[in-house]
Amino acid sequence: MAQGWPEAALKVLQPLLQAVETRGWTKLVINILVLQAIALQTMGDTLQALTALERALSLAEPGDHVRIFVDEGEPMRVLIADFRLRIEKQARNAQEELSNRLAIYADKLLAAFPASAPAPRPAIHTPKSEMVEPLSERELEVLRLLATELSSTDIAQELVVSVNTVRSHIKSIYSKLDVHSRYEAVARAKGLNLL
Predict the structure, then answer these.
(1) Residue 37: its pLDDT value, please?
(2) What would the 3-class secondary structure string for 90-122 be?
């Protein structure tokens, strides 16, 4: 993950998850699920990332684990915030005890993250001058969809292209914006008034 290879990380994490699950090592299961969630989100698979996060939260909530999540920094804070919004939407449809507990737990975790001051925005933005190379029209379309909860597969279906094409566009976007994850790309794009 630290080297920017989320797909390789997932290949290592999956068999490791199965091994620690069979041994009943809950804390390690939570750690692995947290890493999986971040890797999936980095790859643009928000739905799967939220699924892994929900499982991690369900396992961590009874033990009131906080540090496991907070230590992962801003990417985890953003993912928990997305999860919290998702619970709110679902709560309108059906009230569940587990959802209520996870919502309260997610709020507690979000409060535990250090407050980050928003970066000051200059009065006038010149996006093209701040980037080495401007984004193509297609990359701008992909970037707008990256700001949603759509996975790479969903984006490919939306744009009627292959998943590999979408991933190529995402890599190009990351390179042009000088970022390494979906979160950073969306934040940088907002800073450049591209979104």
Answers:
(1) 92
(2) HHHHCCCHHHHHHHHHHHHHHHHCCCCCCCCCC
